[in-house]
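Run log, item B.
One chain of 131 residues. Sequence copied directly from the ordering sheet:
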Amino acid sequence: MYNQTLLNEYQQIGVQSRVNSSNPHSLVAMLFDGLLEKLARANGALERGDASGRGNSISAAIRIIDGLRASLDTARGGDIAANLSAMYDYMERRLVEANSQADGRIIAEVTSLVNEIKEGWDSIPAEYRGA
């Protein structure tokens, strides 16, 4: 237990360091990475029959999706921002279903959607990423 606490503190320092040195594009990329990690943890908890772990991981994933939605610039983003907001809403609803139904197929569906959005995000040319 003590070693796990130290590991968690060390990981938090690493995350905080990356956040402090990141531009907005990199911060969103970090959110995608964290979201994919939470989805993988939810799937692992589902496979182990750990309902509490599944619920915690899905709740964390939903909080990250909320953060992604909050990062949307709806004034400048137009249809793209509106479509992403709708997709984030859909993913959150599906994750609630995945948790209540203990359905790994839904987690896999959301993971696939996140990967598609992340691929698009990662492919943005450097000159458009901002400082």
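Observations after the first pass:
- The mean pLDDT is 88.
- The radius of gyration is 16 Å.
Flagged for discussion on Thursday.
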